[in-house]
Design a protein that fits this description.
344 residues, alpha/beta, Quinone Oxidoreductase, Chain A, domain 1, 2 domains
Amino acid sequence: MRALTLTAFGGPENLQHLELPAPTITTPDQVRIRVMAAAINRLDLFVLGGLPGPKPTLPLVVGSDGAGIVESVGAAVTRVAPGDRVLINPGISCGRCDACRAGEQPICRSFHVLGEHSPGTIAEFVVVPEANVAKAPANMPWSQAAAFSLATLTAWRMLATRARLAAGETVLIWGVGGGVSLAAIQIAKLHGARVIATSSSDLKLETAKRLGADVTLNHGSVDVAKEVRSLTGIGADVVVDSVGEKTWANSLKALRPMGRLVTCGATTGPHVSIDIRKLFWFQWNILGSTMGNHKEFQTIATLAARGLLWPIVDSVFPLDQGRGAFDRLAQGNQLGKLVIEVSS
């Protein structure tokens, strides 16, 4: 099969197109999918550089998001059949530990993401457990189906599960333009919340307004924390911060007493500081969040079938130009998800 692979750690210059053996079903609960399109996330850039911890075997098929057509299924598979259009949840867990049995797959000790420590989605075929697929809406283009799962699932868990966002609350979402932040706007509005969105790009802020943001702030020219406190009188109920070092201090300044800061990433760096006196005095809740569980995945797939939470796609690259998607992601100018067409 054709695949986009990482052959050495470093950057996009180490991506190569290779012919590899196609994966096969090895357990009764697995599904083999012909990938129609794949999408990349910030995680995929980090993989190129080599994440901390055990390194994957190279060459590694890259890509964490994808969608395609079921080609074959294991003997125990009952929810999908050959020919079905499916979305892929790239978070893989063992399915046997206490966390998995409790329905909290993201805290399984074996939890990993496709394209991180196991073969990814930018290949003609991928094999995943049945629990990691959901039927794609018949009218959803492959580009949006490929771009749907990781960002939408991550944003859903952050706001619906971890922060428990409620109608009438105010949520501050930093850095709209990436998949998670754009999904977070839609999810917040679905919950009846008031959304304040930031970006340094007026074009991205216009898109945020189109998705339902009530207030947009250019964080390149205004003091976001000051504006949020002025608009709310007390601060945001929830702050969504996937930026990390660059925004952390202002996220806390923008947060009301007993508010919830939820984070899923550290694009600008992982090391932050906090004045513990402020933490206990204002009784803040600081919440980490990673991906989502199988139940949450089925929830967002059901919403997608209703025409909700469809992702914004920045651009689509053919497989033989897949490196260009990584280059564009590294530049940070994208508005929405970057997609690679794998099969026509």
